[in-house]
Amino acid sequence: SESATTKATTTTWWNSAELWGRFGALAGWGMSGAAIYDALESSPELVSLNMTGVLLVYSSLFARWAFVVKPQNLLLAGCHVTNIAAQGNQFRRAVQYKKENGKDEEVNDILVKAGATAAAGTACLLA
Fold first, then answer.
1. Do 89 and 32 touch, CB atoms closer than 8 A?
2. What per-residue confidence (pLDDT) applies to 6?
3. What is the value of pTM for the model shown?
4. Nearest CA among 21, 17, 11 for reference residue 80
C-alpha cells in the first residue's frame, strides 16, 4: 500500500508539467517567429485579419495564464507577449494595406468585430 502511494506521487518526464510547459513554450516561439518572418518577407495582402485577431486573443490569454500559474512559466509568457506584438504589427500592416487599396468597408467590418470581441471579453472579466 505504501508503494502504491509512492508510485502515485512519483513524477516522471511523461507527467512533468514543467517539462511539457517548457516544450510548449519552445513550440510557441515558432508561432512568434513565423509572424516576425512574415512581417519581414511577406506582402500584407496575405495577412488574414480574422486569424490575426484570433492569435491576438489566444496569445493574450496564454500570456496572462503563463504569468499567473504557479510556478510561473516566463518562457511561455515571453513567447506569447512577443506574439502579441508581432500579430499587432501584422494587423496594422493588413489594415494599412486594405485602407490604401480602397477596402474601407472590410476594415470597418473587422474593427467593429474586434470592438465587440473586446467589449465581450471585458464584460467576462468584470462579471
1. no
2. 53
3. 0.78
4. 21
